[in-house]
Amino acid sequence: MVQCEMCGAETASPKTIKVEGAELDVCDDCADFGTEVKTQSSSSTSTKYSTSSSSSGDSSSTGGSSGGSSNTRRHDMFDEMEEVAADYDDRIRNARESAGLSQEELAKEISEKASLVRKLERGAMLPSDSVQKKLEKYLSITLTESSSGDDDWESESGGDGLTLGDMVKRKD
Q: Of the N and C termini of the chain, which has fewer Cβ atoms inside 10 Å?
């Protein structure tokens, strides 16, 4: 007996249905909540949204293990974007202190609240694009740095790819 993935009831012959993009094995009662999916026969036909490696023949696709090197990382628009620097709070504070300004004076000069400047210098919030531009112009600093895509994504396990465990930092 298999358990229905929707209501939890035991069923001898589950049906595979699609509900909001997710495929579920459900009992006869819950089958009305989605559209029935043909299990084996439709797998050979590909749709424009298919993720199988044989679907489109696109050379930039990094589908499965077939079709070129598996270690090649696919590049996207975020690779060329600049990110707010990790030490943006120190950069703001050091530039403000070098200019001999208090937080209130800096806030007045850039037409923002002093509480915003305090939060930025504490690292409690990221600057919005407009505030970032004002600070960079007034203090003659840069708060961005280019992202270095591949350096941050090396697996500690030495395996084939990156795992969630490689990125999580535990608080213990």
A: C
Q: Kindly tell me the burial class for residue 154, based on how many C-beta atoms sit within 10 Å of its own C-beta (0-12, 13-18, 19 or more).
A: exposed
- The candidate with the shortest Cα–Cα distance to 135, out of 93, 87, 76, is 93
What residues are paired with 82 via a beta bridge?
Answer: 146
**Both tokens of residue 15?**
């049906």
Report the alpha-carbon distance of residue 24 to residue 5 in Å, rounded.
6
Question: 7 is written with which tokens?
Answer: 């209501």
* CB neighbourhood size of 68 (10 A): 13
Which residues are CB-contacts of 121 (< 8 A; sequence separation ≥ 6)?
Answer: 89, 92, 93, 96, 103
pLDDT digit string, tens, across residues 113-172: 999 999 999 999 999 999 999 999 999 999 988 765 545 555 455 556 777 777 787 777
